[in-house]
Amino acid sequence: MAIPETPVGALGKQDRAATRRMCAGVYLDAQYRTAVIQQVYNARKRRVAPSYGYDLVPVLAHAWRAWWLAAITDALILAVLCAAYVARPAAAFFATAVLVDLTLLVSFAARSSGRAGVPPSTHEKHILVAAALATVVALAVLVANDGSRGSAAAAVIAVTPCLILATASVLRQLALNGLRAGLEADRPLRTNRRLSVIDGQQRHPIVVYTAKEPFIGSGRRLGTWSFAQRLVETKGIGGEKDVEFTKKPFPTWDLVEELRRAITALGTEDDPETRLPGLMVADSLFVEGRYAMGYAHELAGAPGADLVRHMLDSPSETARHYLTCRVESWGGDLVTTIFVHVSLQGRTLYIEFTTCGLAPTRLEYHAVDVVGRTGRMAVVRAAFVGLLHLPVAARAPLRLLGDVSLLLGSLGAAPDATAASLKRGNNIGALISARELASIEADESYFQTFDVAKHSKVIERRLLATVGEFLKEHGVDTTEFLQRATAILNNGVINTGSGNVELGDTAMGENTSVSK
């Protein structure tokens, strides 16, 4: 029996907002597109990070579509210029000079009209003057060699790359229109073997990580608290001496199951006012990549629930069990994940509670949800906006070299090389998360920032209440536990970058931190 992930509460149509915006991101952001292809799709010797609040498969499918569109555009521009230099070198030289002038003008104009309003420097003005002089020289060479006939050829050569860029821009906009409709963000009808492997790994209950932070894919670690309590028998009114249990009063599995039941109930309330929508509860097993060899069989398939029971009954140093409580809100664009670890060792109950927040996707990726950025007029506008890509087109030859490298990296014979890599003792832990790469670097809105704290506090309160009642039912003295629980609930600060608010051990945004 596979380890279940329990979806709690129905999510609406905006459920795919994060996926849709990430798909838009691969068309709008070339660096992001290259990163997800190179470091996720082509990284066959590494496991894929968990996907929280989105589906990685359509994102990668669109990344390749956007890559092919960009690569073909560059190849066509380069082919046109090469053919022109072979057939009409003088006309091609003049057309190139004109295109260089246009490129510099567009680049400088874009910088000057931006928010920063940076005007061209003296050095850049000298470059522009030199380019203009080169154009004059090219025109003289053209007239001397081809006369008036060369002017027409030069015009065709200069216009052709512009038409190619305009066409590519229109096709890119049509893809964004499809994402706006919500249809193209669905999974592709046909997937290759590599995407099938990625699909299995992104939902796998065993998370193989590389860095010091095991909770890859869940965003920033906003806060952690933990405590260890001795398991002593309930004392009478007289306050007798503490007496530890000679035999454990309950197995860890029973407490984990009780926590699962209690937290899951938060999302199954009949009353929508008291229900916590978007809640999912699952078992997760975290293994560092260097020690994944011992779990090769489980990684190859779906581990059974008996593996979780075994790990709880016999704790291991190389793997750790966490009850993962995830709340997906704002269409998956904001994800709060709570990792709860429980163990019984040394006649002590140890509880660890970690909150992670996955920030919204970058604002520029929201173009598919902005009025006017999609539709028929956006397609018409895209044809003219494509000319602004002339500075980018000038680097087509260099980009094509990178495109060849990416394409060769995708042609591996094995869709999953982690098994072979394990045999050689290599680290197969996930290096990056496509969702974390797409996140903003600061909080987007007041409500989203505080929703993370709210979700964390709701689950934290239910957890503490459930543990307290559970200990009572099993004859464990809860005096110490109640003191610690009170301190946890009353302590903590959220640092949002604009002030401190008493909400818990949480911090979101660039250069924010929490210390205790």
Briefly characterize the structure.
The protein has 17 helices and 10 strands.
What brief labels describe this structure?
single chain; 516 residues; alpha+beta; seven-stranded mixed sheet; 17 helices; 49% helix; disordered C terminus
List the helices and strands and how they pair.
Elements: E1 5-8, H1 17-28, H2 30-41, H3 56-87, H4 89-113, H5 122-146, H6 148-181, H7 193-202, E2 206-209, E3 220-230, H8 252-264, E4 279-288, H9 296-300, H10 305-313, E5 319-329, E6 334-345, E7 348-358, H11 376-385, H12 390-393, H13 396-409, H14 418-423, H15 434-437, H16 446-473, H17 479-490, E8 494-495, E9 500-501, E10 506-507
Parallel strand pairs: 2-4, 8-10
Antiparallel strand pairs: 1-4, 3-7, 4-5, 5-6, 6-7, 8-9
Helix pairs in contact: 1-2, 1-3, 1-6, 2-3, 3-4, 3-6, 3-7, 3-13, 4-5, 4-6, 5-6, 6-11, 8-16, 16-17
Structure characterization notes:
- It is a single chain.
- With 516 residues, the protein is α+β, with helices and mostly antiparallel strands.
- Among the domains are: 76-187 and 365-401, no CATH class; 220-358 and 445-516, no CATH class.
- It contains 17 helices and 10 strands.
- Strands 1, 2, 3, 4, 5, 6 and 7 form a 7-stranded mixed beta sheet that branches. Strands 9-8-10 form a 3-stranded mixed beta sheet, with no helix packed on it.
- Strand 8 (494-495) and strand 9 (500-501) form a beta hairpin.
Rounded mean pLDDT is 81
The protein's oligomeric status is single chain
Proportion of residues in helical segments: 40-55%
Round the Cα radius of gyration to an integer and report it: 29 Å
- The number of helical runs is 17
Q: In percent terms, what proportion of residues is strand? A: 5-15%
Distance between the termini: 41 Å
Structural class: alpha+beta
Q: How many β-strand stretches?
A: 10
Low-confidence stretches: 6-14, 493-516
Elements, N to C (H/E): EHHHHHHHEEHEHHEEEHHHHHHHEEE
